[in-house]
Amino acid sequence: MANIDTYAPGSFCWFELATSDQSAAKNFYMSLFGWGVMDLPMGPDGVYSMFQLEGRTPGAAFQMGSDLREKGIPPHWGLYIAAQSVDDAAGKVSPAGGKVIEGPFDVFDVGRMAVVQDPTGAVFHIWEEKRPHANGIAGVPGTFCWADLCTRDTEAAIGFYGKVFGWQILPGEKDSTGYLHIKNGDTHIGGMPPARYLPPNVPPHWLLYFFVADADAATARVKELGGAVHMGPVTIETVGRMSLVADPQGAVFALFTPTAH
Fold this sequence. Notes:
Blueprint: E1 2-4, E2 12-19, H1 22-33, E3 36-42, E4 46-52, E5 60-63, H2 66-70, E6 76-82, H3 86-91, E7 99-107, E8 111-117, E9 123-129, E10 136-138, E11 143-150, H4 154-165, E12 168-171, E13 180-184, E14 187-192, E15 205-211, H5 215-224, E16 228-236, E17 240-246, E18 252-258
Parallel strand pairs: 2-5, 6-9, 11-14, 15-18
Antiparallel strand pairs: 1-10, 2-6, 3-4, 4-5, 7-8, 8-9, 11-15, 12-13, 13-14, 16-17, 17-18
């Protein structure tokens, strides 16, 4: 287990489910990943569900409001990227070809954030932590472990994220598939599949991967719990085994079990 108290700028730091049925979604993920949940008041009409795992917080969920539904936004997992200053990072977005959708704004005394769209159309959040330390967790089943940027314009994405976060996005040393690896400093944090793998009816997006002990068993469990399996499980040679699934409300994510070395 790796408790995470500090997220380096440019790293993925928070994972948030926007759902059409918060109660059902909580039951699904609690059953799938063994998460607990702590509901916190969020305005007059709702709660913010903080998932719990080994005393830490692997992510959260909230009920989508009419403002999101009216825009045709489906249930989805959202990704937050850490910044030392959200205002500075957000200030780089437009010059790099992206769009600041909302913010920067304060989230109580917890942090400061902005909602951003990259030039290819993928939406994400920028987060500046204000608490003494974060309460993250990684390296155990049920935790975030990777993210793919699924887009049709890899060159625009490479330029944008390099300017905003200083990422390097390069081919793997022994990879001939066209899959690109995202490095934040010396750390591999995600990737970018070839554009041909993004179906024509699917908009650009960030895909979150969750680490599980057995991808096949977890995938079968998704179906038992009323979710859908879109792909796999499949083996990625020397890397691991993964599947692409969705919860009963339609939020898509990936399950991943690394190859034992």
